[in-house]
Design goal:
Number of domains: 1
Number of strands: 0
Helix content: 55-70%
Strand content: under 5%
Order of helices and strands: HHHHHHHHH
Largest sheet: none
Radius of gyration: 18 Å
Structural class: mainly alpha
Shape: globular
């Protein structure tokens, strides 16, 4: 729990506008890339700590159908993750596009893409988070996996609230209207935007 709390607080702290300004001052056009590297290293540290803390814990004594179900959930999550990532500008997402734009002399470096409301985003507002939920819960076959699923899910739910505030500031009324129609993680309404 404390490891996930450290990641959540650190990730959210670095995403604040004041910290983004400091990262820009320190790294310039490499700010987004630096942010991603810091987050990845921190996430890796949480995973390594969890592996160490739960080392030697046996798998849960689950029936064969449960293992099959968890496998289908995890594989579905990984598949969804890769399909959703294909809909993003991964260069911009990683921070590499911003570096190229700066080298080309761009006057303004933009991190965000236009508001997405089609494809997977016509079903849920946060399809990447939906994929990660599936991955986390599909791997909940021992104490470590269950703890990771619980605390990782809590982080995603809380993180989504902060992300939604940022998206409202960024996209304004267009995002507010989108948010009213489309569920956050579970596509219980089906395809909302045609």
């Amino acid at each position: 729990m404390l490891a996930w709390l450290s990641f959540g607080l650190g990730h959210s702290w670095l995403a604040r506008p004041a910290m983004q300004a400091r990262l820009t001052a320190a790294f310039g056009a490499r700010r987004r890339l630096a942010y991603n590297i810091i987050a990845t290293v921190h996430f890796g540290a949480v995973m390594v700590f969890g592996s160490w803390a739960f080392e030697g814990m046996p798998r849960f004594a689950l029936g064969g159908w449960t293992w099959s179900f968890l496998t289908v959930v995890a594989v579905s999550g990984w598949t969804l993750l890769f399909l959703v990532l294909r809909t993003y500008d991964l260069g911009r997402f990683a921070g590499l596009t911003q570096i190229r734009e700066a080298r080309a002399g761009a006057a303004m470096i933009i991190d965000d893409e236009p508001l997405k409301t089609t494809g997977f985003h016509a079903y849920v507002r946060h399809p990447l988070y939906s994929a990660v939920f599936l991955i986390l819960w599909g791997a909940a076959w021992n104490d470590y996996g269950l703890a990771t699923a619980l605390w990782g899910s809590a982080y995603l739910v809380i993180g989504a609230r902060f992300e939604e505030k940022r998206l409202k500031r960024l996209y304004g009324d267009a995002y507010r209207a989108y948010r009213e129609k489309v569920p956050a993680f579970v596509p219980w309404r089906g395809k909302v935007i045609r």
